[in-house]
């Protein structure tokens, strides 16, 4: 079945199945949102300036500012939500990649656990290390064959 003729085919389905494609797509969306964010910041500044300059006859100096505050707050909330959205897009791209790594590692971990279980059920008998033939005091003084405690040293060194 061709994906061009399939009425249920979604172009985002292919993106969702590949973590690199998902990261690229989310980065593109984030880039667009950041551009929109710059425009919204400019709009918020210009709106603030305009609203605070708008005075009505009989206003005191702070009345225009008080009337502007709800609009400024609404635009500020939009910008805050936009920043949270872009942060969330970045986090979801990382989590998507981590998911695929976890899937790959899960198969490896299961194989290792199965081998460990098999080793525990069927332990191989341990063979005793062969004792090297002793040739007097010379062989005991080489390497690790020397005295085992401080009290044994007195017998050999004296």
* Share in β-strands: under 5%
First-last Cα distance: 92 Å
What low-confidence regions span 5 or more consecutive residues with pLDDT below 50? none
Rg over C-alpha atoms, rounded to the nearest angstrom: 37 Å
- How would you describe the shape? elongated
> Strand count, sense and closure of the main sheet?
none
Number of helices: 5
Helix and strand pattern: HHHHH
Q: If you average the pLDDT, what whole number results?
A: 85
The count of strands amounts to: 0
- Helix- and strand-based class? mainly alpha
- Helix content class: over 70%
What attributes does this structure have?
single chain; 158 residues; mainly alpha; 5 helices
What does this structure look like?
72% of the residues lie in helices and 0% in strands. It contains 5 helices and no strands. The longest helix is centred in the middle third of the chain and has 59 residues, at 63-121. 1% of the residues are buried.
What is this entry, summarized?
It is built from five helices and no strands. Helix content is 72%, strand content 0%. The chain has helices at residues 11-17, 19-53, 63-121, 137-141, 150-157.
Task: Describe the secondary structure blueprint for this structure.
Blueprint: H1 11-17, H2 19-53, H3 63-121, H4 137-141, H5 150-157
Helix pairs in contact: 1-2, 2-3
């Amino acid at each position: 079945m061709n994906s061009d003729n399939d009425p249920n085919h979604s172009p985002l389905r292919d993106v969702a199945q590949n973590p690199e494609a998902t990261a690229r797509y989310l980065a593109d969306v984030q880039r667009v949102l950041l551009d929109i964010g710059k425009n919204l910041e400019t709009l918020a500044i210009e709106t603030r300036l305009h609203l605070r300059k708008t005075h009505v006859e009989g206003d005191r100096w702070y009345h225009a500012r008080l009337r502007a505050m709800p609009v400024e707050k609404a635009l500020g909330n939009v910008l805050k939500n936009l920043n949270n959205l872009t942060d969330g897009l970045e986090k979801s791209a990382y989590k998507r990649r981590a998911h695929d790594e976890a899937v790959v590692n899960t198969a490896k971990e299961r194989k290792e656990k199965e081998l460990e279980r098999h080793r525990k059920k069927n332990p191989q008998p341990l063979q005793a290390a062969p004792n090297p033939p002793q040739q007097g005091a010379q062989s005991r003084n080489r390497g690790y064959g020397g005295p085992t405690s401080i009290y044994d040293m007195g017998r050999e060194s004296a």
